[in-house]
Amino acid sequence: MILKPLVVDKMGIDTKEHPMLLTEPSLHNKDHRARMVSHFFEKYQVPALFICKSSVLAAFSCGRSTCLVLESGANTTYAVPIHDGYALQPSMIKYEIGGNYLTKILDEFLASKGTTIVPKYVITAKTVNGQFIMNYQKFELTTPSYEAFAKQEAVCEIKEALLHLTPDPPMGETSPRTDYSLPDGTKISLGPDAKRIPELLFTGSSEDNAFIGVHKMIAEAIIRTDLDIRKELYANIVVAGGNTLIPGFVERVQQLVPEAAPANTKIKVIAHMPVERQLSAWLGGSIPVSYTHLRAHETSLHLVCRLLLEKKKKKKK
After folding, report:
1. What is the pTM of this model?
2. CA 105 from chain center: how many Å?
């Protein structure tokens, strides 16, 4: 675990004197959670431990205690209904689709075009005439897994720089080609075929045939909840996670969710600025820990929900 080298050794924090808040995935193995709790209490002897789902903290970061959180990260995408600060476990939907899947598809596309990705670590210098000097000999002990990771990072940078979602999918057919310089100086040009890769998040995936698209995930997760809270969930759709930073992602969700929702339903998509969206769980976690000094008999989660509800009532007045 990174707790000792980071928190204890580098920051000099005595874990015996500080309560801890931990995040966990929306669908977490109960046995893993039990081992984690045991580890913190027995090895680090923390005085108190509060475990909260990352989707709930993402909701708190936007000031919501009841909402639908669409959380898409590197490897997974969740649609999680939240009611009064609790994730509704039976209504959650999860697919093993995320940013790494899009990176893999782009890597396969570049390979099919004969493009070779050179990792940054093998480039030792750049000559006066713009040529790059590469030296593999200095890295004889580099493992194949690290080389694959370095290449994946280079492809990920291409994905983040060039791929986007247009408001109208058919417009991708006529989008202009875009040039990009690889780490070794090689110039590549990406056309509409490559730029349409993020469309897989909405049209379905060849890797997971059951995947229905994130907008349909939202509608299906809400349908699994009680009828009384569905309107409020549709009106409070919180988008979180690094994979949602693809330009045009939030706009596409706002555009397609009404097609999957019942007629005349009010739809509102809530999203932080890009930097904050990557840190939604961190920002949301700062809320319960900042109120722990109030009402010792209440848990932090109950207290945050109560404060958010009071704030909502004041706005209505």
Report:
1. 0.81
2. 18
DSSP 30: H
Dihedral of the CA atoms 164, 168, 172, 174 (nearest 10)?
-140
Listed residue (130, 190, 186) closest to 160, CA to CA:
190
- DSSP annotation of 9 reads I
Report the distance separating Cα 309 and Cα 64, nearest Å.
9
Task: Provide CB contacts within 8 A for 223, sequence distance 6+.
Answer: 230
- Alpha-helical regions (H) of 128-184: 144-162
Residue among 228, 225, 231, 238 at smallest CA distance from 88: 225
Hey, is 276 helix, strand or coil? helix
What are the beta bridge partners of residue 78? 71, 94
Q: Would you state the pLDDT for residue 235?
A: 93
Q: Return the SS3 of 26.
A: coil
Strand extents, DSSP E, the chain: 20-24, 49-53, 67-72, 77-83, 86-87, 93-95, 123-126, 132-134, 178-181, 187-190, 237-240, 269-271
Cα 164 to Cα 162: distance, rounded to the nearest angstrom: 7
CA distance 260 to 237: 14
pLDDT (tens digit, 9 = 90+) per residue, 107-134? 999 998 888 888 887 776 665 555 666 6
Contacts of 261-267 with C-beta under 8 Å, sequence gap 24+, read 261/219, 261/222, 261/234, 265/231, 265/234, 266/231, 266/234, 266/235, 267/234, 267/235, 267/237
Q: Which amino acid is at 146?
A: Y
d(CA 206, CA 287): 40
